[in-house]
Amino acid sequence: AQKKVEGRNFEIRKHLVEYDDVMNRQREIIYSRRRKMLFSEDIKNDILVLIEQEAEAIVLNHAGGRNKEEWDTAKMAEAVKAIHKDTKNPFDFDKLNKFEETEEMIDYTKHYLWDEYLSREKELPDFAESKGSVLLRQVERGVYLRSLDALWMEHIDNMSGLREGVSLRGYGQKDPLIEYKQEAFQMFMELLANIRTNTVNTLFKMEYRQEVSNPVVRRLSPRNLLTNEDQIEHVLGGERNLSEELKVHNQPEIGRNEP
User: Fold this and answer.
1) Which one, of 125, 126, 113, lies nearest residue 196 by Cα?
2) For 129-176, how does the pLDDT look when each residue is reduced to its tens digit (9 = 90+)?
3) Burial of 57 (0-12, 13-18, 19+ CB in 10 A)
4) d(Cα 176, Cα 167) in Å, to the nearest integer?
5) What distance in Å separates the CA atoms of residue 19 and residue 11, rounded to the nearest whole number?
6) Calpha distance 104→172 (Å, rounded)
């Protein structure tokens, strides 16, 4: 009986470790990406890779594994314009219909987004002196880390809910652990896609402008500013006794031990 109890407890602990192992693998991947973005001096190439992956996802979502007659190029163009819309250099919707392969559409879409993103960098103040580029690298790092942290915390809560939910699937003759691993993998892939999408969308929609000093303040001159300088000098010079002004008159003296 003791052997049976110990064996059952061992299986329970082993089962719990297998559940925890799924979350630990995901945690290692997220933390490694976070460390890379946090400590890399230049993450420009990493951001360009995210833009490329987002372009690929847009095309495959509306054309992957389908015949050309089933490609929804209109939805592709809408998805690209939702990320970035430039009236001077709009995304060429008609050109998508001329391609014969999805790889061609991916290549065209990613190069369009790359060029638009790099052109925005060149428009930054002090770009020639590289100050603008340094500032943009800091912005990229902050945007990515904020998206990763927020979505990762939400993912942890969702994984806890999933773990509680799959325990009931044993009644349906299904292995809860297998169900947990399959759905956890799907949720993790969605997490990575959401981090990428949020980062790319935020970076394209951010507006960069140079701060200028307040014109009202610039127009003010010392001649137009009035202060109580005379009163201040009068007090600092010892010509007024502040202790006399602060003294409360017509009040009885109160002893230290009185209530």
Assistant:
1) 113
2) 555 577 888 889 999 999 999 999 999 999 989 988 887 776 667 788
3) middle
4) 6
5) 12
6) 46
